[in-house]
Amino acid sequence: MANTYKALSALLSYPTEEIKAAAEDIHTIIMDEALAPAWALRQIARLIEDFKSLDLYELQERYVFLFDRTRSLSLHLFEHVHGESRDRGQAMVDLKTLYAEGGLEIGASELPDFLPLFLEYLSTRPTEEARQLLAEPLSVIAALKERLQKRKTPYLAVFRTLEAIAGRAPSEAELNDLRKAPDDDPNDLDALDEAWADEPVIFGPGDEACPKVSDMLDRMNVGEPPAKIAKDPRGIA
User: Fold this and answer.
1) How far is Cα 79 from Cα 69, in angstroms, rounded to an integer?
2) Contact 106, 117 (CB under 8 A)
3) What's the pTM?
4) Binned average pLDDT, 10 residues per bin, the chain of 237 residues
5) From CA 77, how far away is CA 74, in angstroms rounded?
6) Domain total for the chain?
7) Does a structural domain hold residue 18?
């Protein structure tokens, strides 16, 4: 089991005094376990330095602007696949069941597809199993990485690191579908309204079913490793 996933989960959670105070411990865990290559660890170190040096209010404001006000950067993984459709609800139930079977009980108000929660679950799994599970939503993680790269935010480091840990490239077909979704600007209120009104991204035939998440969950349950795909070793799109 690797505590790196829990440390990365903390970095992607809403900044609090506790997380800010634990920045040095987070840094130590990630560097000591070294699940990612050196270039990724250096980028993570720069993000952690922000947690140490910036005012808490500034950290919180940046987080809200990126992940709460920008739908295309939502940290709820299934939102990028199902939007607000009913298929997302069943996928959430299935993922919550997976967590429970693995010994992770979550609160009634917690959404299981929240990336920091998913990473916390990975921290409870054997290292190789966690790496395989991380590869399942890699297309969404890669799409978020590309959108964060355009914004030149230090949070990009977490997504590059996750890609590097997975050791695989995402499905290009899935990633291309995700690229078609609007990448909204929270400063453009008209565009923001339009983005929230758009249809969800659907992988698969028609509106009746979306096999993307169910296939992912099936592989999670049986431990089937995804196929390897060559990728840029720097983790840069």
Assistant:
1) 14
2) yes
3) 0.79
4) 96 98 98 97 97 97 95 92 67 90 88 95 95 95 97 97 95 93 69 49 39 53 40 35
5) 7
6) 1
7) yes
